Structure formats: C-alpha cells, structure tokens
Amino acid sequence: MPSLPHSDELIFFVNGRKVIRLTGTKYSRGGGGCGACTVMVSRYNSTTKAIHHYPATACLVPICSLYGAAVTTVEGVGSIKTRIHPVQERLAKCHGTQCGFCSPGMVMSIYTLLRNHPEPTPEQITKALGGNLCRCTGYRPIVESGKTFCVESTVCELKGSGKCCMDQEDGSLVNRWEKMCTKLYDEDEFQPLDPSQSKQGERITWITPATLNDLLELKANFPKAPLIMGNTELGPSIKFKNEFHPVFISPLGLPELHFVNTTDDGVTIGAGYSLAQLNDALHCIVSEQPKEKTETHRALLKHLRTLAGAQIRNMPAPSFHHTSHLSLIPLNGPFLERSPEADLKSEEIVSSVYIPYSTQWHFVFGLRMAQRQENAFAIVNAGMSVKFEDDTNTIKELQMFYGSVGPTTVSASQTCKQLIGRQWDDQMLSDACRWVLDEIYIPPAAEGGMVEYRQTLIISLLFKFYLKDPQKFPNIPEKFVSALEDFPIETPPRNSDCVDPHQPLQDPVGHPVMHQSAIKHTTGEAVYTDDMPCIDQELFLAPITSTRAHAKIISTDISEALALPGVVDVITAEDVPGDNNYQGEIFYAQNEVICVGQVVGTVAADTYAHAREAAKKVKITYEDIEPRIITIEQALEHNSFLFDEKKIEQGNVEQAFKYVDPIIEGEVHVEGQEHFYMETSSILALPKEEDKEMVLHLGTQYPTHVQEYVAAALNVPRNRIACRMKRTGGAFGGKVAKPAVLGAVSAVAANKTGRPIRFILERGDDMLITAGRHPLLGKYKIGFMNNGVIKAADVEYYVNGGCTPDESEMVVEFIVLKSENAYYIPNFRCRGRACKTNLPSNTAFRGFGFPQGTVVVEAYITAVASQCNLPPEEVKEINMYKRISKTAFKQTFNPEPSRRCWKECLEKSSFYAGKLAAEEFNKKNYWKKRGLAIVPMKFSIGIPTAYYNQVAALVHIYLDGSVLVIHGGCELRQGLYTKMIQVASHELNIPQSHIHLSETSTVTVPNGVLTSESMGTDINGKAVQNACQTLMARLHPIIRKNRKGKWEDWIAKAFEESISLSVTGYFRGYQTNMDWEKGEGNAYPYYVYGAACSEVEVDCLTGAHELLRTDIFMDAAFSINPALDIGQIEGAFIQGIGFYTIEELKYSPEGVLYSRSPDDYKIPTITEIPEEFYVTLVRSQNPVAIYSSKGLGEAGMFWGSSVLFAIYDAVAAAPKTFVLSSPAAPEMIRMTCVDQFTDMIREIPRDDPSTFTPWSIRVS
Questions:
Q1: What distance in Å separates the CA atoms of residue 73 and residue 57, rounded to the nearest whole number?
Q2: Residue 1067 parent element (H or E)
Q3: Do 301 and 379 reside in the same domain of the chain?
Q4: Number of domains comprising the chain
Q5: Which domain holds residue 970?
Q6: According to the annotation, is 34 in a ligand binding site?
Q7: Which residues of this UniProt protein bind [2Fe-2S] cluster 2 (predicted)?
Q8: Is residue 337 annotated as a catalytic residue, yes or no?
Q9: Residue 170's pLDDT is what?
C-alpha cells in the first residue's frame, strides 16, 4: 500500500495525529517499552467464530500488518464530548492520573482486558498493566481503579484488615477522626460497566503471502528479507540502530502457522502464535495433563509470566521473533548458538515448534534474573534439563543453556558430557560449577558489563536447578528450601488514609477533589505540546550531537545533509544572532565540544524522519583534547570544579574528635538518576512577522527562564518573547533549566528559517542531552561514644555537575543545608563542591540533592550502630533533635512533628514485632533473608533566596459570574491548577464549576518564578488568595446590601457601579536568606517531617528482592487536597525506590551514556509496589503557609531509602562484604552476599586491567 514518506507506524496512521487530529495515543519513546501508545487490536478468528481483542504498542505495529484487523484507540472508548467509558471515569475518580501522559495507555490496557474478561481477577488487572509505565502516581491508584471491576471488592479496608473503617469499636486505639474515614472517592458514583460498549512506500516494499507456498517462494526470491510478525525486535533496530530492509515479508494470518496439535507424545504449536497465545495454549495443556508430563511446559510458562508486557507478548511470534530457522531440526546447542551447521536454506522457515511431554525421571527448569521483576531483559537466563536412569539419581541426559552471557545462547555442552553417568550429589554440583565457568567465558570488557555478577549467576542458577531435583529434595536442609520459591507478583491492598470529617462538605479546601484535567487525561483529550495542530509551513527539528566528550571541532560538512529531500536548512552556532554562551550555558557548540551529547547543530526539514536522516549525514571531524574528565575521582585529581566550596559548621569539630571513643571514616557512592518523564522535551516555536516577536509553546517548570534565554539568543528584549505552558507530561526538575537551552536552540532555528519549528526530542536524545540527578560521592569522619551518641561529624560532598553550571550550585547548597537530616550533632561540619566534568550537565531533580546527600547521613548512622553493636533505629532515636533547637546554620525550628511521626511509625507499623519475625525467618532460611529499616526525615521547603519565592496571580470575574484564574505556576502533574481552583472557590465562596484556569503564560503573569521545591501551592495559592480577598473586599458593600442575592446578581451590580472585577494578586514570598560567608541564615520558611518503615526479602543467590511492606507517616499539617497529596507521596516514594534500587545509568570510560531507552534503563513497574502499603497524613500546625498546609511533593522521594536500608539490613543477616552504596541493584546485592559461589568467581584468574577497557565505569 502507498505510505507517507516519513513513517509507517500505526501511531501516525490509525491515531491520525497529523491527519484527522486524534491525539489520544501518546508517543513517549518509540520502542514499545512504556505502553503510552497502547491501542486495542481486534481480529476475527474464523476457526473459533469469535473476535479476539489484544493490546498492542502503536509505535511498533506496522500499518501493513493490520490488514483485516480493527484498531480501537482511546478516542473510540469514550469522550468528554459524547460519553466517557467507566474505565476512563474510574481511573480519573480513583486519582489514577497526575501528568496524564500515560493515562490513555492505561485506559486501553484495562479496557482491552475487560473486553475479554468483563469480571477480571486482581491478578489479571496486574498482569494487564505490566507493560505500562507511569512515573507519577506510584501505580497504586491505577491498580485500584482496575480492581473496582473485580467481583471481589476491596473498597474501604482499614489498614489491610478487611474491615470497613466505619465499623471499629469505640475502644479502638485509633482516634475517632481516624475511624471516620472520608474516602478519597465514592465508588457509588461510578457508572456500571456495559461489556457491549465499545503496499509499497518510498523505500520499502511490504509483501503478505496468501499461502505457505507463497511464503516459501518469497523467501527464495528475497533471501535477505526479514519475516515480520510483531516487529518487537526489528522495529527498534530500524528506529534506533539504523537498520534498513527494502523488503519485508509478513506471514501474519497464515492458517498453516496458527494451530495447536496434541498427540500422546507432545504438543505442536504453530510458529505464528504470539507469546500470549502460546501462554494460553500452555496453560490449557498444563491443566489437562499430569504434572510429570509437563515439566517443559511449566518451565516455559514461568518464563512467559515476566517476559515483556502484555502488549509485547501479544505481538511477536516465538519462532519469528529473532530470525528464520530450519524446520524439523532439534532445538539443541548448534541451533540455539546459531552455528553454521544449523543454518537455513533460503527457502526454508520454521512452521511449528514441537514440545514433547516429559517423563517421570525428566526434570526441566527455566530461570531468569533481570533488573526488575517484570518487563525487563534478562541479565542472565537459563534453561536446564536432566533425565535420570529410572529409579536412580544417575544422570542419563543433561542439557544446560544460558542466555545474555554471549552474543547468542550458549550451551554448556562439554560440562554436560562430563557429567553423564555421575550421581546427582554435592560433588557433582561442585564439579559442574567449576567446569561450566571454564566453558563459558565472559570477556572482562563484555558488552553490558557486570562480568563477575553474570558469572556468579551462571552457577547460582545451576545451584537452584540442583535443588529442584525431587530425588535429592528429601535430603536438602530445610533452610535451603526457600531458595526454590519465586517472589510472587502481588496486587497491592487498598491504601486507607483518612480525611478530616470536621471539614465542612461545602468547603472545597481539605477534600479529595479530583484532578481538574483527570477526565481529559483518561480520554486522551488533554492537549500536550506535540498534540497541537500542524501549522502552515511548519518544520521539524532534529539535533546533531557531539560524539566526543572533549574535543576541538576541526571541520563540519553539511553538504550531504542539505542534499537530502525535504531538508530546508542546517543551523549552527554561526546562526545565533545574540549570545550563544549565556550565563555559562552553550546553545550550539562552537570550535569545541565539552561532552558527548552536546548540541553541535540542528537540521530543519519538512518531516521529522527527513530531519533525523539528514542529521546523521552531517560529518564532523574532531581532535580530542586532554584531559577528558568523566568521574568525580578524575575531577578531584585535576582540581576541576564549577564553583567555590559551600560550608556550614557548628561547635569545634577538631577538638571534639579528641574526646570521643571510636572514630570511623568511610565514603558512600550514590549514582545518578534519569528523570524519565513520560513526555519528552517538546517545543513549538512560532516566529511572528512583526517586531521580531516569537511565541513558544512548551513543557517547562520555568517559563520566565525560557523567555530570558530565548531573548538572549535572539538579541531581542524579553517583551518580544511569549512562553505559553498548558501542561507537561511530567518534569521532576528536569524541565527547570533544560527547556531554556532547548528553547533557545529551537528559537534560533525558527529565526533563521522564518518558519514554525516543532522540536520534539526522541527518548534517547532526551536522556543524552538533558542528563539528570547529580551522582554524589560522600566522605565522612564520625566521632561517637560507645553508647551511640555522636559527638562530632566532618562530612564532605562532591557531586558530578557535568560540563556547565546549570543548577549545580543550588543543588550543592541544598545538600549542605539539609545535611543534618533529623539529627543533632553538637560538633558538625559539612562541605560541598560541584565537580566540572565532560558529561552533559546534571540538573534539578525531585528532592534537589536531599535524596543523595541524606543517604550518606543514614549510612554513617548505620555504621555507628554497627560499631556500637546497637540497632540502627536506637542510634537514630538517641541522636534525633528532641526540643526546639537551632540547625547548624543557626535557624530555629521545632522538631515535635518529627518525633510524633517517628513514634507513630514505630507503633503502627509494628516495627519491633516485624524485626523479631524477620530474625526468626532468617534463622530458618539460608538463601533468603528479610530486613527492616526505619528512617526519619526533616526536609526543608523553599529556596534560601527570597526573590525566588515571590509570585503574582490574575483573577478576572466576568459578567456571567464565571471566574478566570491565571498565575505563574506550571501544571506538571501535581494538581496545582486543581488546588488553585479550590483556593479561589473557598475565598470567593462560589462553586468550583464557576472557576477556570487556562494556561501559564509570560504574557499574562510576567516574571514568574520556577515551579519547584514543593512551593507551587504555597506561593501561587497566596497570590490567588490575595487577589480573591481584594475582589471580595470590593464586593462586600454590595453583598451587605443584598445578602440573599446570588453571585451573578452581585457581579452585575458591581459592574453597574463601575467596580473593577479584575485584580492582580501578589505574594512577596517567604523572606528567606543565607549568608554563606558566615555560614548562617534563615534559609527556609518551614520543614516537613516524617518517618517511613519498609520490610524486604532478598534472594541471596540472585540479588533479587521483594518489597513486603511500607508504612509512611508524613507531617502534612492540613492537607488542602488529601487525594493529590497522597498521590504525590506515593509517586515520589516509588520513584525513590527506583533511584535507590534498580535505576542505573551506565557510562563508558569515554563518557558515552549507554542507558538511553526503557530497554537499558529500568524504572519501577507495577510489580515494585509494596505488597502492603500504608500512607498516613499526620496533622500539625503551619501558620506561615496557606491554610496551614505543607508542600509534600519533593520530600517523599527520600522514603525510597527505607527500602535501600532494609535491603542492607537483610544482607547484613547473610555472610557479606559490606560497602554501602546506591543503588542497591541486583548486582550489588548478590555480590555483597558471600558464599561458595562468589568465592569460586573470585578465585578465577583476572585479566590484567591494563589489557582491556571496561565496558562501563562509575561516575560518582
């Protein structure tokens, strides 16, 4: 079929983004790993006479593969213009949306499940959502919305008890206001579910054969043409690795490839089956056959449960997923290793896969270890099979295959041969481990790194297989049995926090009001930057980025790029009319590059595909410059820093060290983190024809900053630049500074071409260019008494700032000022510096340095506890602030809420009972260990510079009584607009339906400050309140004269009396300050306190862990909107779990970022939610903030560290080599646990480090 020249992906055709303006299906990455673009595909099965519905990722499905299928996007499910579907309604009303960018995909996953299973089980809900990522909510409310469709309701359980919160006895320990739960939503409002609601292109030829013979003929005629079914591997290779194939052959739909045949000996499954269909077929077989016959089938099912997400499992066919192979050949070593003798003839394909039944003495085991439990590529996987001589433990046949330890699947065939005839005993295991390590060699510079860990997994998984044998099982020590048990994938219970019932129902403040855009999120009708309609003469922009970390630009050849069709221009530094280096930030590299990923130029073309292709054709010649500084260690060697040192100090540290008992010293490495907002950086720059004006539509946390940088780049006054911000699909600090630079880059392109520019970064470019959280190295020296009292601390922090200033100075300031956490140390010194390196500049991130820096604090508290042989929680409590005190920088505060949160967390989490239970568990289990940790928090809100706290708001009342509110804050995901509507409704005493917020713009509210540091509601709320109170003061005489009148009457009368109905409100800001020369100041307006406890279970053989329970107690003072606040806490906590446990950024020694996609960088999925999860808002007073509220969005990030320290507590129960660092990823956990297998690995002779370059290095 004819196709547009720039794409053949489903998202652009079926979704019609650029054709019929259906923008609901979101494009987040393009590799099928996030689920934002999920749609439902429906096909009629002529055999079963039924329609089968399945989810698919639109970014991977070629339009040609959908012949004969129906595709439903979120627009086809429901709309605010017609009728919304119950799935959309419940996701919104259960507060399951924040930024909303992932919401259409979530809707489609649940909707598709309901089309197949109108009354799903909780397990089916969890499984259906396994392929969808969310960076905002923490998943719990999303799962909860899905579970409302389940037959068994879990609504309104109190703390997981199964009892309604209203049914407690009066004698309960829970206070009355805690018992009287005003729920976060009312399920009685939900609509009931109605199950009936509902080729040849420019360069590529797509051929769909009608018969099997046609397919074989096509294979002979086009021997290099790939067979394509689901496109889940080939699609990303084409998109990201520049593979090109002129011909595709798609045998999708051939009946000869879609069947299941069962015989007495086994099952034959057609090669066209998707993984989901294979899963269903295997389940059916396992349910019908005796257990001893289905060893292989059950091993396959175990693998399939966690392999990819539901969307991907529904797309690829197992036989065509990698390549075409010869039929009627054994799936043995040569086949799986792709040896030449097992290669194909060009006309041959796999038509089916035969899975024989197992026999009584045949045992099969499938194992895989990945960075997270679900939807992640395996670090190592294994398939093992053993047959014994009848009634013996003598090995008759043995096969062992390993994946991810080489370029292909590896067979340990020589080891297996040597073990034939051996007894299945401990000596056999010992020999097998040594031999398999000799046979399977992983080079020290192997792609993917983790060499020792992968070697350890090879024999650890072999040990698990050894334990599985029932012949040996009776003699296995009981302590070993748990090694065989997989961590379950559980659905979390309902969170049950309470809303104050004393708050008047008619008052919107204090009630769980739904996010004002939630319904639009779930219907896909919320408009983001790239959803805006095409503009006449619009051009697409693609970046040209540096491939060297530090080098001179010798020459740049753009001729080949300009010659390509559709290319309009190439923009470089010479095209910048104003400042190209503004406040240390470089828009286009000139003469020299200072990091890999620096923007050297951009290409403007008529389509993004053309721009991207042309960017690859630009030839740049470099000459490397020394030194090339990548790590903090290298920066310290070269004395390379961005700013002067920041320091605070109290007492006499050196003197105190003379009078303590022990002194310990140590260091902690904390690696960085990618923001991974779902909507990548997006800008639409519109040049005007008059007066050098330009309008930018973009997602940012700081429109004024963008305006400033664009004006500087274009050399025009700021009043010519308008920045408009409606909403963005997540930010987390990543859209504070970076959009200013990217805005300048796009504005220069728009200025040169004179045409609108659409600049939407691909996920890989976004991760490369914009960087993320600062990696940190913390060094400490602690003096303490034997009873655990800390007398002196000397702490140094170094962060990897990257190549330009960005926000690094403020990050270091925050780390230093927050470095005490909740602890009082009378003699305390903290110093911090930002290292200048040749990495992309790291920037603001949720918590602003606190999550990294405070890990060091908790680490040295834990080290002191270990040295004193005391529990960490006891040492923490001994050293916590206990009364009104001054911080190390001389600011007075009251820690009472901190003490209360700590006490309640200990009591209501049953912490001490949990510790005893974990100790008992650890005594009974050798290879599984449990650990608990509780952490306190004192988190400062705001910025120590007063003018960053000021803000204005504009409130208009129209003659019909409707109200328009405009302010300087940005809607990122946090519900800021919703809370501002609540504030205005409260102050004006009118229904929320009367009030509208449109967008944030530098035209309407100038000089706005950044929306960050949990200050959005605080400062913008004060400005809106001020404006509304001024208006009410003007209206008061009219209201007093007509108290029984209506709002509309009062407004009409005010207009008749020439009373202005428009007011600019203003909040001067908290008058904070910090004198760094003196090391003292009134740095913050107030603090947020809290405590969190987590319990984990660790698999010492693999490094996997499971989060069993988390209790969070957060000092919220008075919550303006409990639903939004709890959502912020939960979302931040899950993001913190990712930071502290599974999210790893991998850099090459040359400064190249490897982690540029969901395939390489793993954020938490639905399976990372605790099995039990409780959040409690603790009430207190905060008179300085609006309505005595507190900002909570940033602080919750640190609660993830309770999981980190719980992991270390669990690891401490096993033999270990203990060096605390973050993240506690599976590799770190496994290699920290010491056993006979790690000993074997460490005995292997190592290559001389001077003979190879490691694949990746630590940059902290």
A1: 11
A2: strand 1062-1067
A3: yes
A4: 5
A5: 947-1067
A6: yes
A7: 99, 102, 134, 136
A8: no
A9: 39
Same domain, 1036 and 1086: no
How far is residue 371's CA from residue 1159's CA, in Å, rounded to a whole number? Answer: 11
Q: With both helix axes pointing from N to C terminus, report the angle between 1122-1137 and 1201-1212 in degrees, rounded to the nearest 10.
A: 40
Does 846 show up as a binding residue in the annotation?
Answer: yes
Q: What is the dihedral of CA 513, 516, 519, 522, to 10 degrees?
A: -100
The answer as to whether 236 is a domain residue is: no
399 marked as binding residue: no
Residue 1126 DSSP SS3: helix
Instruction: Answer yes or no: are the C-beta atoms of 837 and 646 closer than 8 Å.
Output: no
Do residue 274 and residue 383 come from a single domain?
Answer: yes
> What pLDDT, in 10s, does the model give residues 1170-1225?
999 999 999 999 999 999 999 998 999 999 999 999 999 999 987 766 678 999 99
**CA dist., res. 973 & res. 968, Å (int):** 15
Asked whether the beta carbons of 1210 and 915 are under 8 A apart, the reply is: no
- Establish whether 594 is an annotated binding residue: no
- Interacting residues of 988 by C-beta distance below 8 A, sequence separation 6+: 963, 994, 995, 1028, 1031, 1032
At residue 1061's C-alpha, the angle toward residues 1055 and 1065, to 5°, is 165
CATH number of the CATH domain containing 1025: 3.30.365.10
Same domain, 931 and 1009: no
CATH assignment of the domain containing 54: 1.10.150.120
Secondary structure letter of residue 474 according to DSSP:
G
Q: Parallel, antiparallel, or unpaired: how do β-strands 682-687 and 619-624 relate?
A: unpaired
The answer to whether residue 260 sits within a structural domain is: yes
Read off the tokens for 242. 């520049």
Residues 1169 and 1116 in one domain: yes
Average pLDDT along the chain = 89
Confirm whether residue 369 is marked as ligand binding: no
> How many other β-carbons are positioned within 10 Å of the β-carbon of residue 480?
15
- Cα–Cα distance measured from residue 973 to residue 157, given in angstroms and rounded to the nearest whole number: 27
Tell me the two tokens of residue 525: 């009708």
Does residue 672 fall inside a structural domain? no
The verdict on whether residue 231 carries a ligand-binding annotation is yes
Q: Are residues 575 and 695 in the same domain?
A: yes
Is 679 annotated in some ligand binding site? no
For residue 232, what are the CA distances in angstroms to 324, 403, 1178?
Answer: 15, 18, 47
The answer to whether 629 touches 635, Cβ cutoff 8 Å, is: yes
C-alpha span between 833 and 1240 (Å, rounded): 41
CATH of the domain at 744: 3.90.1170.50
Percentage of residues in the chain having pLDDT higher than 90: 72
pLDDT at residue 40 in the model: 94
Alpha-carbon span 218 to 216, nearest angstrom = 5
Alpha-carbon dihedral 252, 254, 255, 257, rounded to 10 degrees: -70
Per the CB < 8 A criterion, the answer to whether 561 and 615 are in contact is yes
The answer to whether 368 is annotated as binding is yes
Nearest-10 Cα torsion for 1241, 1244, 1250, 1252? -70
Q: Looking at the structure, do residues 857 and 785 belong to the same domain, yes or no?
A: yes
User: Given this model, what pLDDT does residue 157 score?
Assistant: 41
Question: Where among 734, 760, 786 does a domain terminate?
Answer: 760
Q: What is the mean pLDDT of residues 205-209?
A: 81
Does position 697 have pLDDT exceeding 70, yes or no? Answer: yes
Q: Is residue 4 part of a domain?
A: no
Final residue before a domain boundary, out of 138, 153, 168: 153
Q: How far is CA 1043 from CA 446, 1048, 1050, in A?
A: 79, 13, 9
Distance between CA 47 and CA 982 in Å, rounded? 56
Alpha helix stretches (DSSP H) within 391-471: 413-419, 426-439, 451-468
Q: Confidence class of residue 416 from pLDDT cuts 50, 70 and 90?
A: very high
CATH code at position 463: 3.30.390.50
1020 membership: H or E segment, kind and range: helix 1016-1041
Distance CA 991, CA 1033 (A): 19
Q: Rounded CA gap, 1102 and 1119, in Å?
A: 42
Residues 777 and 915 in one domain: yes
